[in-house]
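thought: fold this chain, then report.
action: predict
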Amino acid sequence: MKQKLLNLISFVISFFPTQLPRTPAAFEKLMRVVTGVYGLPDSVNCRFAISTAIMHLKPTEDRKATRFFVKAIRKLQANEVAYDVMEAARKAQQPPAAPTAAVVPDATIQG
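observation:
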């Protein structure tokens, strides 16, 4: 019960801007909120998405809601799925490649 209440409080707080992580420990805290409250995996892809989102903020932005980073991760996941579906469709539309004969380079010296 206590953990559910803490998650609910963290969920509500995530809608309000908080200071961006400026230390590795602050970044880890942000990852704990993202993974604990929203159930997202603590993976390299999630860390990369959050890092990229921070890097793309305007120079004057020093506060952002945690919810923003969650949405960035979910968008990254949707992009990965969409890309995989597009690639599968593209490969299905291509006719099979005809076998080609091996080209043997001419080893004679001309001159």
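thought: worth noting. The first strand starts at residue 17 and ends at 19.
final: tokens above.
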